[in-house]
Amino acid sequence: MQRITIKDIARAAGVSPSAVSFALNNRPGVSKEKREKIMEVADELGWRPSFFARSLPSAKANTVGLVIARPARSVNAESFYFRFICGVEQVLVASSYNFMLKIVDSIEEEMETYRSWWLDRSVDGVLLVDIRDHDPRVEVLEKYELPYVIVGNAPESIRSNNRLELRTPDAGAMQMVLEHLAQTGVKQVAYLSGFARMSHTQQRIEAFNRNAQELGLEAQTLETDFTEEAGAQKTLDLIAQMGTPLGIVFDNEVLALGGLSAVKAQGLKIPQEVKLVSWEDSFVCRIVSPQLTAVSRDSGRLGQEAAALLLRRFGSHETASTDFEMPELVVRASSVGR
Amino acid sequence: MQRITIKDIARAAGVSPSAVSFALNNRPGVSKEKREKIMEVADELGWRPSFFARSLPSAKANTVGLVIARPARSVNAESFYFRFICGVEQVLVASSYNFMLKIVDSIEEEMETYRSWWLDRSVDGVLLVDIRDHDPRVEVLEKYELPYVIVGNAPESIRSNNRLELRTPDAGAMQMVLEHLAQTGVKQVAYLSGFARMSHTQQRIEAFNRNAQELGLEAQTLETDFTEEAGAQKTLDLIAQMGTPLGIVFDNEVLALGGLSAVKAQGLKIPQEVKLVSWEDSFVCRIVSPQLTAVSRDSGRLGQEAAALLLRRFGSHETASTDFEMPELVVRASSVGR
Q1: How far, in whole angstroms, is CA A71 from its chain's centroid?
Q2: For A129-158, what is each residue's pLDDT tens digit?
Q3: Which chain B positions have a beta carbon within 8 Å of A283's beta carbon?
Q4: Which of A128, A193, A336, B210 falls 20 to 30 Å from B121 in CA-CA distance?
Q5: Are A96 and B289 a contacting pair at CB < 8 A?
Q6: Does residue A77 contact residue B83 with C-beta atoms inside 8 Å?
Q7: Distance between CA atoms of B136 and B246, rounded to whole angstroms?
Q8: pLDDT of B3
Q9: Which helix (H) or strand (E) segment is A99 a member of?
Q10: Which residue spans adopt a coiled-coil conformation according to this UniProt entry (chains A, B) (predicted)?
């Protein structure tokens, strides 16, 4: 294919070549609207930055990128992500790679970031987190030929042959939790999940319903926004609907703490009337009373393995996905009687 | 001054020009020892990367850097830093800047990172955290002419005219804490500090001792490594030495939680016999029983202001340091009787 030049784009977009240059180089000097228009036209024409120009001073950025698109109030995600980031860093530092981090509000901004990183050759590849059904980010990364590793289980809807996953055993862990609750003698279970648009949430909900059925447990699930308030309120809703004894699985420790306070304020007995299990362990689960039974996984190691997988892909075009270790269920007083 | 070439460095270091090239470009192909030797010689000769070569494809990296040199086990720092990072990101994203994050074990590695960022022109400037007495990082940043903002109060030993600080009111906050404790009627106070090599720790210790004296309180301080275990053990040591009633100020909420458990395990009454104040608030302080009185500051906003100050320096060579807002003292049951 003939190489597309700035002049071609300028002509097609009906703007000056210098406006195109500003836009393509991601520099100020052109309005947001004009820039978007230019980028669209450039895309349509199949424009790619000149490898030679972009390859100075070096073809390799020696940098790995991570964009977290997080809703403002998902507090817990913070502790998970910081431990994850520390793990990523351990591996990158040891391999002399830099780490580019971006925290944005939406996956639209996340995709815009990938474009800008690709234009500037800022990163050699990225870690993709919070994968969802029909995730448009995968298409964007493949279009820009940015190597990536999906942290978690890519849903069926992601059909690329090029995808590389660090798979997490969400279904197995949920089975472990429900078998534990069944062993405590409870007949009804509920799951306060996170955002249902996340694939791992869907996979957990599916496993929850399937395992509950297999174990002969009555089951209900409710979506939350990960806040303590939602944990408290939805726990009370569940108890009002289902009655006790009831076993509740919370998608993170912040939800579990909200639920714990609400249950205590109602004067209900833990674990006799309500059993609580937190999906995500932290020192917080040990300092509350009663202590919280929790699914404990090493998010630092998850970060390490994700970074290592991406570096292997850089070196050898690795395509074999990896399974992350099963988490441990740490049984404490919130689910078993004293 | 005559421009120093790779050949000059190769001659002086007694190595091949290609080895010098590998070393200066921070690429593999030369041993760590050889690389260090070469960098030393290059420094001595006053070598600087060619502006022209480094300025392609663009003179501006459009990136801000942050290196955190953290001891492996300082758990709390994590929550502080993640909220800080989220604040930094909010400002950078709005200004289309990238964010380069590095987490390393020592300030030696931190300085090595600055050199590598400077060589690669990876960042336009950095945020400098955990400033300490005679901090060698300031000298390194000035040598590389990397703009920086010090987050916190630079100690007297940092003499540069070029420094720019986002000052934090540590002394004022400590005065607020001690006045609160004095009002509760306690006559003895103790402070479990963080690492004494940090300037903010020294400033807090100094303010603690000065205010205790002015308020006529008997005072003692002990250094810790920020762990829950240290919080528990040193709290028991203090009680054994000083007796009760005693007011204890903990440098973060993890220390405070350790102290709280230890005091409860001893069967001592809170707040009648032991009053606890945490320097750093979090939802954890609200979920324990009794709830913890805490110094509450907005670490997200601290990150925002630090990033904004650095961006102002880029634009206008800003040199006026800024004072960060006073934190709030949130009084809860751990320091005032019910």
Answers
A1: 12
A2: 999 989 999 999 998 889 999 999 988 888
A3: 75, 228, 254, 257
A4: A128
A5: no
A6: no
A7: 39
A8: 60
A9: strand A98-104
A10: none
Task: Indicate the range of A137-146, B50-59, B80-89 predicted with least confidence.
Answer: B50-59
Angle between helices A75-94 and B75-94 (to 10 degrees): 90
Q: Does B109 touch chain A (CB under 8 A)?
A: yes
Query: Any chain B CB within 8 A of the CB of A93?
Result: yes
Q: Of A237, A236, A293, which Cα lies nearest the Cα of A268?
A: A236
- In the block, tokens 């104040």 appear at B277
Around B146, how many Cα atoms within 13 Å sit in the side-chain half-sphere?
31
CA distance A337 to chain B (A): 21
Q: How many residues does chain A have?
A: 338
Omega before A57 within 30 of 0, i.e. cis = yes
Query: How many CA atoms, within 13 angstroms, populate the side-chain half-sphere of residue A233?
Result: 9
Residue A199, classed as helix, strand or coil, is helix
How many other C-beta atoms are found inside a 10 Å radius of the C-beta of residue A321?
15
Instruction: Kindly list the structural domains of chain A, giving each domain's residue range(s) and its CATH number in brackets, ordered by start.
Output: 6-48 (1.10.260.40), 63-169+300-323 (3.40.50.2300), 170-296 (3.40.50.2300)
Q: Which tokens in the block code for residue B32?
A: 């760590």
Does the interface ipTM go beyond 0.90?
Answer: no
Q: Are strands A218-223 and B148-151 parallel, antiparallel or unpaired?
A: unpaired
| Contact yes or no for A314/A59 (Cβ under 8 A) | no
**Whose CA is closest to A270, among A292, A243, A250, A296?**
A292
- Distance (Å, rounded) from C-alpha B307 to C-alpha B315? 13
